[in-house]
């Protein structure tokens, strides 16, 4: 009789060792009716040593992929954690602890460590705190369960059952974390959560009665889940990261790189579907060339960024601000009428002029000229910008630092 076991979890817990009759020859012959016809391939006839080997290869491949990704982008620590988790699983699944060492405490310790590496990687990927108290408890539970049952002199099967349930809880907790963070987000995240949940369920299959599942089938299913879940998790995580990068790139394409407010294209994209009237405000920083000439272009960039941040703080909910180039900005206030928009424009003018902008010990005083117009809807906003721009020209020719309404 040879002791056979499988981890059956990506970067997490695994099943305890299970004794499989006839496994040393690589083929299951349990006496079950399904094994009577040897000419017909069945689940029972799969070679466990082969599955064990391919399981380790899958883990190793996934680990190498993530470590390679980390080497390309060292700031993405979660790639390293995913890779280390996979590599640890690869070393354990091929023969360390679980295979041939029934009841060893190193088994829950190894799988729990791999699981925690993966879980911390997930949280860093989500830009959250790496570790929580709950996670620390979950990391200790499998090992503590094994040790306590051992000290209480329970037999091997009881220790095995307790440890397996503890492992399954660890995986389920990780799955719940991912699924709870998936609401309203990419469906790819659900693939990750459901894969982890499948692992948790697979871990408990060996606990079922042989009347429900034939002998050896649970272990084979665990290996199959290991293979599929590892591939799904790796693919899903990389796809989710690619999707995040594409969204960030699309966002940057619609934003001004200096001030991080919308650019002209971004404003069009955000306002083209506006229904009903909208207030349009065009703002120009007065005598901006003097700032560049007197303090340098870096100071000028700082002034533009500071203006954008101050203006954003004054914007009502649902309003937009964009930089149209140079020192000119456009603000759109959906639903606002002429009087309301004029009041906002005057408030903006007073707020900007009330507080100088600090730069290298100097105080840079700025003022703005403002033009206001009303758009009848999204398609009318470009024309309203032109009307507000003409009103702005009037404000500038009449002394600057004032608001004019078209």
Gross morphology: elongated
Helix content: 55-70%
Biggest β-sheet, characterized?
Answer: 5 strands, mixed
- Strand segment count: 9
Mean pLDDT, all residues: 86
**Largest beta sheet: what is the strand line-up?**
4-5-3-8-9
- Which regions are unreliable across 5 or more consecutive residues at pLDDT < 50? 1-38, 96-102
Q: What is the CATH T-level topology of the largest domain?
A: Rhopdopsin 7-helix transmembrane proteins
The H/E string reads EEHHHHHHHHEHHEEHEEEHE
Strand content: 5-15%
Separation, N- and C-terminal Cα atoms: 91 Å
CATH architecture of the largest domain: Up-down Bundle
Number of domains: 2
Structural class: alpha+beta
What is the alpha-carbon Rg in Å?
32 Å
CATH top level class name of the largest domain: Mainly Alpha
Helix tally?
Answer: 12
Summarize the structure.
By secondary structure, the protein is α+β, with helices and mostly antiparallel strands.
Question: Could you describe the 3D structure shown?
Answer:
Mean pLDDT is 86; it is low at 1-38 and 96-102. Helix 12 links the parallel strand 8 (368-375) and strand 9. The chain is elongated and about 95 Å long. It contains 12 helices and 9 strands. The longest helix is centred in the middle third of the chain and has 37 residues, at 217-253. The chain has helices spanning 48-72, 77-93, 106-125, 133-151, 156-180, 188-203, 217-253, 264-271, 288-295, 297-314, 338-354, 381-397; strands at 2-5, 17-20, 278-285, 320-325, 328-334, 357-359, 362-364, 368-375, 403-405. The relative contact order is 0.10. A 5-stranded mixed sheet has the order 4-5-3-8-9, with helices on both faces. It is an alpha+beta fold and 406 residues long. It has 2 domains: 2-252, Rhopdopsin 7-helix transmembrane proteins (Up-down Bundle), CATH 1.20.1070; 264-405, 2-Layer Sandwich (Alpha-Beta Plaits).
């Amino acid at each position: 009789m040879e002791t056979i076991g499988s981890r059956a979890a990506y970067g997490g817990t695994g099943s305890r060792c299970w004794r499989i009759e006839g496994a040393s020859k690589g083929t299951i012959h349990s006496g079950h009716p399904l094994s009577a016809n040897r000419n017909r391939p069945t689940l029972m006839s799969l070679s466990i040593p082969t599955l064990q080997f391919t399981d380790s290869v899958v883990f190793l491949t996934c680990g190498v992929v993530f470590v390679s990704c980390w080497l390309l982008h060292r700031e993405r620590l979660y790639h390293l954690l995913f890779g280390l988790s996979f590599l640890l699983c690869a070393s354990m699944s091929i023969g360390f602890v679980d295979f041939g060492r029934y009841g060893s405490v190193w088994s829950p310790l190894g799988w729990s460590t791999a699981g925690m590496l993966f879980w911390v990687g997930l949280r860093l990927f989500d830009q959250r705190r790496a570790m929580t108290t709950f996670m620390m408890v979950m990391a200790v539970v499998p090992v503590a369960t094994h040790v306590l049952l051992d000290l209480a002199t329970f037999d091997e099967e009881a220790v095995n059952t307790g440890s397996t349930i503890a492992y399954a809880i660890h995986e389920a907790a990780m799955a719940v974390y991912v699924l709870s963070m998936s609401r309203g987000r990419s469906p790819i995240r659900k693939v990750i959560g459901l894969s982890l949940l499948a692992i948790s369920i697979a871990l408990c299959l060996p606990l079922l009665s042989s009347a429900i599942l034939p002998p050896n089938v649970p272990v084979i299913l665990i290996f199959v889940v290991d293979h599929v879940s590892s591939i799904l998790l790796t693919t899903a995580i990389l796809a989710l990261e690619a999707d995040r990068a594409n969204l960030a790139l699309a966002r940057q394409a619609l934003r001004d790189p200096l001030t991080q407010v919308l650019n002209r294209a971004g404003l069009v994209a955000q306002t083209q579907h506006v229904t009903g009237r909208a207030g349009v405000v065009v703002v120009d920083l007065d005598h901006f060339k003097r700032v560049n000439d007197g303090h340098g272009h870096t100071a000028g960039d700082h002034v533009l960024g500071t203006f954008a941040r101050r203006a954003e703080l004054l914007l009502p909910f649902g309003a937009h601000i964009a930089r149209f180039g140079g020192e000119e900005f456009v603000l759109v206030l959906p639903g606002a009428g002429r009087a309301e928009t004029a009041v906002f424009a005057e408030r903006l003018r007073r707020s900007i002029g009330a507080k100088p902008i600090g730069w290298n010990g100097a105080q840079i005083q700025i003022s703005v000229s403002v033009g206001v117009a009303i758009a009848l809807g999204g398609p009318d906003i470009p024309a309203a910008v032109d009307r507000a721009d003409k009103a702005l020209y009037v404000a500038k020719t009449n002394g600057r630092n004032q608001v004019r309404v078209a």
